[in-house]
Amino acid sequence: NFERILIMRKIFAKNLKELRKEHNLTQEDLGNILGVTRIMVPYYEIGRSVPSFQVLEKIIKYFKINPDQILGTYMEIKEEGNV
Known about the structure:
Strand content: under 5%
Distance between the termini: 19 Å
Shape: globular
Number of strands: 0
Order of helices and strands: HHHHHH
Largest sheet: none
Radius of gyration: 13 Å
Number of helices: 6
């Protein structure tokens, strides 16, 4: 449903920003690493845009994380299990 997509988009945006800051990267640094234009990283971080699967894969590989960690699906599944 649309509401669920918006929530996942917000979670992704928040997680990406936190990861970038934890690794002391500027938005420009991350854009260069991911091979996207300078403006795309802030768009990802506010949820205005979502990365392609190729860019998402680069994010996962660069930060050495599980896809669930960036997408927030682990937390969502955990919370649903507690219901």
